[in-house]
């Protein structure tokens, strides 16, 4: 028989865990982690330059400098698996003052995620930047680890429900704590990587960068996982102490 306090804590922990997992999943699958605000297109010469950048972004070979410059100039957004730019819906980029903009996206393939970063983006002779390379790899691997830990915790919890046992609750809480730490580390790696990128690739004039809502979703999911972990650990410890007291009372 489970005390009402423990049952309430477990239900709240489950709700927090589900919310955190949904937030993290949405964050991983969307591109609004970081976004750039660029000035409007003015003049045919400027439009031609931006059009060539866009064509290289869509059809050219994968290159960090190429896609970074395009993101800077075309109101780009970049996430863990996607990079997108805003471009006019028609071919006449500069002739209409209020042209309709559409979002064009390209995904980072798995091999591209493991491509090394260089000290000078686009210059393969400048040497590999180990810090940026491993920050980039961590920022897309850690959220997958986090989701894996939550799925494992869910499977253990399901088996514990079938067995009507609270014994695995402490382990489930630890898994949620690790998931929250991995998610927080993802956000830290991403922010550090973007800061280092902006140091080696200076933003053009009048181009501003800001954090997007996808990053905030990931940031919110981390404390939710940790709160779920705290409730699970508390329920496990309290139930264990109460059980030993009852056992000692019966023996006495």
TrEMBL record:
Q: Where in the cell is it found?
A: Membrane
Q: Which Pfam families match?
A: Claudin_2
Q: Looking at the UniProt record for this protein, which Gene Ontology cellular component terms does it annotate, in alphabetical order?
A: membrane
Q: Which UniProt keywords apply?
A: Membrane, Transmembrane, Transmembrane helix
Q: Which organism is it from?
A: Larimichthys crocea (Large yellow croaker)
Q: Indicate where this protein is primarily found.
A: membrane
Can you say what this protein is called? Claudin domain-containing protein 1
* Its membrane topology: Multi-pass membrane protein
InterPro entries assigned to the protein according to its UniProt record, in alphabetical order: CLDN1 (IPR042356), PMP22/EMP/MP20/Claudin (IPR004031)
């Amino acid at each position: 028989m489970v005390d009402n306090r423990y049952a309430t804590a477990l239900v709240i922990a489950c709700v927090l865990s589900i919310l955190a997992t949904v937030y993290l999943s949405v964050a991983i699958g969307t591109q609004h982690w970081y976004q750039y605000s660029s000035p409007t297109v003015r003049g045919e010469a400027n439009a031609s330059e931006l059009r060539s950048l866009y064509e290289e972004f869509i059809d050219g070979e994968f290159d960090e400098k190429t896609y970074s410059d395009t993101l800077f100039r075309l109101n780009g957004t970049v996430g863990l698996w996607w990079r997108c730019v805003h471009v006019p819906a028609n071919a006449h980029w500069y002739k209409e003052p209020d042209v309709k903009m559409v979002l064009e996206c390209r995904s980072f393939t798995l091999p591209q995620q493991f491509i090394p970063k260089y000290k000078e983006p686009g210059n393969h002779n400048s040497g590999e930047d180990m810090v940026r390379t491993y920050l980039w790899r961590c920022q897309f691997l850690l959220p997958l680890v986090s989701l894996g830990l939550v799925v494992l915790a869910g499977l253990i919890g399901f088996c514990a429900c079938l067995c009507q046992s609270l014994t695995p609750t402490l382990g489930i809480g630890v898994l949620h704590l690790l998931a929250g730490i991995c998610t927080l580390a993802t956000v830290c790696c991403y922010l550090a990587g973007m800061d280092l990128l902006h140091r080696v690739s200076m933003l053009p004039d009048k181009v501003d960068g800001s954090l997007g809502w996808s990053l905030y979703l990931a940031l919110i999911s981390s404390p939710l996982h940790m709160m779920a972990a705290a409730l699970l650990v508390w329920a496990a410890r309290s139930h264990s102490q109460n059980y030993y007291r009852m056992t000692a009372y019966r023996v006495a």
